[in-house]
Amino acid sequence: MKAQTVTASEVQRQFGRVHDMAMKEPVAITNHGRSTSYLVSADLFEQMLLCYRRASFVGDLSDDDMRQILEAKVPEEHNWEPDEVSYAP
Q1: Taking the C-alpha atoms of 14, 11, 33 and 26 in order, what is their torsion angle to the nearest 10 degrees?
Q2: Alpha carbon distances (Å) from 71 to 14, 38, 68, 74, 86
Q3: For residue 9, pLDDT beyond 90
Q4: Which one has a higher pLDDT value, 84 or 44?
Q5: What is the DSSP string of the chain?
């Protein structure tokens, strides 16, 4: 997904227009020529949060977490063996 780009001063002058742009796709906000932040819709932000993962130490996992990991099964449509993958460019 390619973001539209606007300057920080343009956001200040035309927030309504930039806000409307962000409802359709992310908007990169630049300051002195480099992207410093993005304006995204609430729906996209919530989708991104759902995909966000944090690393944890195994020792921090509860017994229930470990049980769920041990009982987890890979869905058949995603189950594959390494020799089934082609590495050719």
Answers
A1: -110
A2: 53, 39, 5, 10, 30
A3: yes
A4: 44
A5: -PPEEEEHHHHHH-HHHHHHHHHHS-EEEEETTEEEEEE--HHHHHHHHHH------GGGS-HHHHHHHHH----GGG---GGGS----
Per the listing, tokens 């993958």 go with 85
Please, which residues bridge with residue 2 across strands? none
Q: How many residues can be counted in the chain?
A: 89
CA dist 39 and 16 (Å) reads: 12
* Dihedral sign, Cα of residue 14, residue 20, residue 24, residue 29: positive
Classify residue 50 by burial, with Cβ atoms within 10 Å: 0-12, 13-18, 19+: exposed
- Give the tens place of pLDDT for each residue, 27-67: 999 999 999 999 999 999 999 998 887 788 889 999 999 99
